[in-house]
Structure formats: structure tokens, C-alpha cells
Amino acid sequence: MLDSFLIRAALAGVGVALAAAPIGAFVVWRRMAYFGDATAHAALLGVTLALATGLPVTLGVLVSATAMALTVAAAAGRGWAADTALGVAAHAALAIGIVALSFLHGVRVDLLGYLFGDILSVTRTDLAVIWTGAALIIGLVAWRWRGLLLATLNEDLAAASGVNPRREGLVLTLALAVLIAVALKIVGTLLITAMLVVPAAAARPLVRTPEAMAVLAAVVGTVAALTGLYAAWHFDTPAGPSMVVAAVVILVVTSMAAAIRGR
């Protein structure tokens, strides 16, 4: 069954959608979409590191994304305005990553694939990495769910309840870095944040509990991945951007439904 590249692509898209849903919910709640952007853009630096040293690309991206997230968090807490630190980090990481890739002589680099994803070239090994990463992310978020919720709601309340907000922030940072590492080949560094934010935003108007939002975001992301993949095959459009467009269409529909229901 896995010999079909379309089936492998569909399984990869579903795996990324399931992994992105719980993290995307916290990204929306904490208003950290730009933080996700800055971390995702560091993926190109990880690709350069991996190609230059012979490391697996996923490992290189994981290292660079984690380093970027920790660096931005530290800079934002030391006199830098959060939006300034994130703006500088996001664009600097992307530009430096592209320039660094140009210095790799004798190495064939599919820059468009890294920027926008290449889901149709997913291999069995890629599938194993994606689903292992998804299982790790879902397990980590489920394990720390209560602490993450308390730290998101109110840091003082979390501390009073025995939860360390800084530790929960590090857990979320690690989960985000793992997601970026496994999603790079699916939607690329420029669209990872969209698959984080859009399904969660689409789910938000229709639910009443945090758990329901995470579950519905997973459903929206899965539908968007499969619909976008079908559209890419049928209309010969880029698969990664098509998945994001499908998610945006669902967001528009759910927003309209919520507006009509609220009248």
C-alpha cells in the first residue's frame, strides 16, 4: 500500500495535521504566531548545518529550531520588545539560511522544496520520522496539558498551583521545534506556521472547551491536508500551498457559521 506516492503523501499530511493541532491551539491562545514564524524560518539554517556536516536534515532542523526559539525567548525578556525581537529573528533567520545554502558547493539543494514543501516526494523513512515525531508531540502535550493550560491562562495562577510557567514554556518550545523538524518536507519553512494557526483558528469559534478545540483543529487540519492534496493532484497546483488554501477556506466557512449563529 505504501508503494503509492499519493498514499504516502496523504499519511504524511495527516501526521503533520495531528501533530500541529494541539500546538496550534496554544499558539493561538498565547498569540505566538510570530514566534512560530521565527522558529520555522530557522529551519533553513538547520538544513545548511545538516548538509554541511552530513547529519540527517531532520536532526539539523531540530537543533536550529530549538536554538532559535530559546534565543528569541531570552532576547524578548532582556529589554527587547517582543515584536521587535521576533521580527528581527524571523527575517534574519530566513535570509541567513538562504545565503548559507548558497555557499554549499557540490550539493544539490531544492530551495523551493524547503521553502514550500515537497509532500509528493515523501519516502517510507520520512513517514516513520513524521509519525514518530507526531506521537512524541501528542504524548508530550497530553502529559503536560494541565500545566500548559494553567501557564497559558495565568502565570501567577499556575505558580500558585505548583506549576512552573517557564518549564511549561520550554515544553511548548520543544514540541514546536519537533513539529518544525518533521513538517519541513510537507509544507516548507514558509508555510509551517499557517498549518499551526489556521486549523486552530478555524476550530475556535465552534467549540467551548480547550480539549474540543485541539481535537477539532486536528480534524480541520486533516481535512485541509487531504483536500489540498486532492486539489494539487487534480489542478496540478503546489501541494503545500494547496493544503494551506484549503485550511483558509475552512476558516472562512467556520467564521461565517459562527457569525450567523451569533445573530
SSE order and pairing:
Blueprint: H1 5-30, H2 33-41, H3 43-53, H4 57-76, H5 82-102, H6 111-116, H7 124-143, H8 145-153, H9 155-160, H10 165-187, H11 192-203, H12 210-235, H13 239-261
Helix pairs in contact: 1-7, 1-10, 1-11, 1-12, 2-4, 2-5, 2-11, 3-4, 3-5, 4-5, 4-10, 7-10, 8-10, 11-12, 11-13, 12-13
Give an account of the 3D structure.
With 263 residues, the protein is mainly alpha-helical. Helices cover 81% and strands 0% of the residues. The chain has 13 helices and no strands. The radius of gyration is 18 Å and the shape is globular. 46% of the residues are buried. The model has no long low-confidence stretch (mean pLDDT 88).
In short:
The protein has 263 residues and is an all-alpha fold. It has helices spanning 5-30, 33-41, 43-53, 57-76, 82-102, 111-116, 124-143, 145-153, 155-160, 165-187, 192-203, 210-235, 239-261.
Helix fraction by DSSP (H/I, runs of at least 4): over 70%
Written as H for each helix and E for each strand, in order along the chain, the element string is HHHHHHHHHHHHH
Strand content: under 5%
Average pLDDT value? 88
Distance between the amino and carboxyl termini: 48 Å
Shape: globular
- How many DSSP-defined strands? 0
- In DSSP terms (H or I, runs of 4 or more residues), the helix count works out at 13
Q: Main sheet?
A: none
Query: What structural class do the secondary elements suggest?
Result: mainly alpha
The rounded Rg comes to: 18 Å
Q: Which residues form runs of ≥5 with pLDDT under 50?
A: none
